[in-house]
Amino acid sequence: MAPESNLSRTSMFEGVLGYFDHAARYTRHEQGLLDQIKYCNAVFRTRFPVRLDNGRIMVMEAYRAQHSQHRLPVKGGLRFSPLVDQDTVMALAALMTFKCALMGIPFGGGKGGVKVDPRAHSLGELERITRRYATELLRKGFLGPSLDVPAPDYGTGEREMAWIADTYQSLRHDDLNALACTTGKPLVLGGIPGRREATGLGVFHGIVEALSVEDHMAALGLEPGVKDKSFIVQGLGNVGVPAAQALSEAGGRIVALAEFEGAVHHPDGLDVRKVLDHRRATGSILGMRGVHDITDTAKALELPCDVLIPAALQGQITEANAPSIQARIIAEAANGPVTPQAERILLKRGIMIIPDIYLNAGGVTVSYFEWLKNLNHVSFERMTRRYQQTAHRRLYDAMEDLAGREDIELRRKTAMDGPTERELVLSALQDTMAIAFREIHERMVADSLPDLRTSAFALAIDKIALTYENLGIFP
Q1: Do 178 and 200 have their domain in common?
Q2: Is 254 part of a structural domain of the chain?
Q3: For a tag on the chain, would you pick the N or C end, based on fewer CB atoms within 10 A?
Q4: 8 A C-beta contact, residue 357 and residue 96
C-alpha cells in the first residue's frame, strides 16, 4: 500500500464539505436541515498510556468521530497510522454517512483512529493499545452494537476487531448482542464469509456497472465492458488485490501494479498472482523477470491506461500530478484519493471519476450483513440452504421424469446444493452495487448534474433528509 500523502491532509474534511455544498445546490432542502446533515455531531479525542515491552510508558493519541446519528448505530472503520488526526477522522466519518445513505444501509457514519505505526510495535503492544482504546470508547458511549460499530481500516484487521469485541464482552458481559459491537471479525467469532474481500469486489462490480453505460463510454472513446481494457491498480491490500484479480478474470489487462516500494509495469498485462507470489517470496514486487520496474511508485499513476484505480490512501492524485494523468477513468477505491483541486483539473480534461462514496461501499455493505447475522445469532446459510436443496431436488426429479432418463446430468451435486453463506453475501453485494449505480446515473441524467460525485452526494443528502423529516427527529 502506498504511503499517505501529506498533501491536502489538513483540508480533507473541508474538501468533503465542499463536495457537500456543491451537491446541496441541486437539492431543495432548507438550510437548517442541510447544516444538520453537513457537520460532525460528536468527536471524541483521548490520550491514554500503554506500557511497552521494554517497560517504558508511551502515551497514545486517539480519536473517534460520529458524523451523523440520524441512524444508529454509527458505522465506520478504525485505522492505525502515525498520520491520524482529528480532521482526517471527521472527513472519513462524513464520507461514511453519505456512503451508507447512498447504499440504503441504515447506519450513521463514524470513523476512528489511533496515532500509531503498527509496524513499530510488537503483537503484545498492539493488543494492549487496541484493548485500552476500546475501553476508552466504551466509557464515553462510542462503542456498542446499537451505538457505534467499528470495522477494519488501514493498519487494522480481523485481529484488532476480535480484541475489541472481547474487551466489550468482558465489560458488558450481560449484552446478548456483544459480538455485534464490531464487524470484520474472524469467522469463528461471528464474522461473515466474503467480508475480507468485500470492498475490493465491490470496486470490481462498481467498475463493471460504470463501464456498461454506453453513452459514458462513447464520450470517452471506449467500448462498453471490462474485456480488453487496461487497468492500473495502486495498493495491494484487501481492496486492490481482489479488485485486480476480478478484473483480470473478467478479461481486463492489469498493466501496472503499485505499492510503497515501487511499481511494476507491462503493457500486455501482468499476472496478478505471480506478482503476489514474487512479493511473498522476496518482500517486494520489484525484480520480476520480464516486467519493467518503476522505483518512484507515484509515477505509475501517470502511465497510460483506460482505468486508474487508486486503492491506497487519500491525497494520491493532487493538482501537482493531475495534469499528467493519462487514464480516461479514475475509480476511487480508496477514500479521498483525488483532492478537490485535482478533481477540477481532471473533470476539465474530460476524465471520468467514479466517486469513493459509491465505489468502495462494498465493505460497509457486507459489514451490515455481518451485523445482522450477529444480532440474529444465526447464519444466513443455515436458514435457507436445506430448504433450497430440497426444492432443487424436487424440481430436478420432475425434470428427470419428464425426460425419461435416470442418468440425467442435472442431479450433479453442484446443481443440487443450496447457496453457501458466502455465495449469498457476494450475490447481495453485487445486487446492492448495481442498484446504487443505477440510482446515481438516473439522478445525474434526470437533473443534468455535472458528474457522478455530485449526483451521489445529492442522492445521499436527499435520503438522509427524508429520514429526518419522516421520523420527526426535529422537535
Answers
A1: no
A2: yes
A3: C
A4: no
Query: Once rounded to an integer, what is the mean pLDDT over residues 259-276?
Result: 93
Task: Compute CA 117 distance to the chain's CA centroid, rounded to the nearest angstrom.
Answer: 21
CA distances from 471 to 70, 71, 94, 99, 457 (A): 9, 10, 21, 20, 21
* pLDDT of residue 39 exceeding 60: yes
Query: How do residues 139-157 score in pLDDT, each as one tens digit?
Result: 999 999 999 999 999 899 9
- Is there a single domain that holds both residue 215 and residue 351? yes
Cα separation, 52 vs 38, whole angstroms: 40
Identify whether 111 is a catalytic site residue. Answer: yes
DSSP-derived pairing of the beta strands 148-152 and 74-81: parallel
Predicted pLDDT of residue 154: 87
Q: Which of 203, 300, 212, 207 is nearest to 242 (CA)?
A: 203
Candidates 111, 185, 229, 373; catalytic one = 111
Pair 439, 339 in one domain: yes
Give 410's pLDDT tier (boundaries 50, 70, 90): very low
Cell of 137: 470508547
Q: Where are the alpha helices (DSSP H) in 104-157?
A: 123-139
Give this prediction's pTM: 0.87
Q: Which of these, 110, 109, 87, lies nearest to 97 by C-alpha position?
A: 109
Q: What are the backbone angles phi and psi of residue 26, rounded to the nearest 5°?
A: -100, 15
pLDDT digits (tens, 9 = 90+) for 201-236: 999 999 999 999 999 999 999 999 999 999 999 999
**At 463, which CATH number?**
3.40.50.720
Tally of domains in the chain: 2
Residue 277 grid coordinates: 507470489
The residues, ordered by sequence, that sit 6+ positions from 42 with a Cβ below 8 Å of its Cβ are 65, 66, 69
In 155-299 the beta strands, taken as DSSP E runs, fall at: 230-234, 253-259, 262-265, 292-294
Same domain (yes/no): 232, 87? no
Q: Max CA-CA distance within the chain?
A: 79
Q: How far is CA 278 from CA 33, 269, 287, 315, in A?
A: 53, 16, 9, 28
Flag whether pLDDT at 299 surpasses 60.
yes
CA dihedral (24, 30, 36, 37) in degrees, to 10, reads -30
**Coil, strand or helix at 148:** strand
**What's the domain range around 127?**
42-189
